[in-house]
Amino acid sequence: QFFPLYVYRPDGTREVLFYGNRGSYTSIYAQPVDAEMRPVGDTRRVVQGERSAEYEAFHLFESRMDVSDTGLLAFVTKQGGADVVHLLDLNTGEREAVLGFETLVAIYSPALSGDGQTVVFTGIDQGGMADLYVYSRAVGVLRQLTHDAYDDRDPDLSPDGQTVAFSSDRSQWGMDGHYNLFALDVRSGAVEAITAGPQMDLSP
């Protein structure tokens, strides 16, 4: 079980979503839990992976999932040799959108705004640079948020969608393989350190 994600629904039900490898195939599963995080009921499979071209392969050890307040699940798979972001409505089980970008060779850890209309993620371009990107579904525009040689990963959006928290090696300790947490202002692009030190601060 990898990258568990806690989901609290408006009707009061709770689930933990996770990547799981059962029977040699990786899929996304949901386990109902109570308020004390104890399992209740049966685990159900949300997405059947690695058996079709639609969900060719997950980045099992590298990429997180996210869920919007509206119940939209964002996750990444390979599809036809390229990475795409899938947006799946957990309320209906229907896939709402598939987002792919010609300029990016890999995508990791998509995060959603509360309404599901904004997606921020780590993208790797053809030069191998790992930067943060934001995609507005309302206007269909992809914007690059960071432009440098640092390894920016695991972004998450603030509730108002104006700040991105992320992990990066953009510090004096980065050359030694350490990561700290940073906050990026979406409007201005300004980056501020949240933590500092020779440590591994990941997945804010």
Tally of individual helices: 0
Work out the radius of gyration.
17 Å
Number of strands: 17
For the sheet with most strands, the description reads:
5 strands, antiparallel
- The overall average pLDDT, rounded, is 92
Helix content: under 10%
Strand content: over 45%
Helix-strand topology string = EEEEEEEEEEEEEEEEE
Descriptive overview:
It is built from no helices and 17 strands. With 204 residues, the chain is mostly beta strands. Strands 5, 6, 7, 8 and 9 form a five-stranded antiparallel beta sheet that branches. Strands 1-2-3-4 form a four-stranded antiparallel beta sheet, with no helix packed on it. A hairpin with a 5-residue loop joins strand 16 and strand 17 (191-193). The two termini are 19 Å apart.
In short:
With 204 residues, the protein is mainly β. The chain has no helices and 17 strands. The chain has strands at residues 2-8, 14-22, 25-33, 44-47, 57-58, 66-67, 72-79, 82-89, 95-99, 104-112, 118-125, 130-136, 141-144, 152-157, 163-168, 180-185, 191-193.
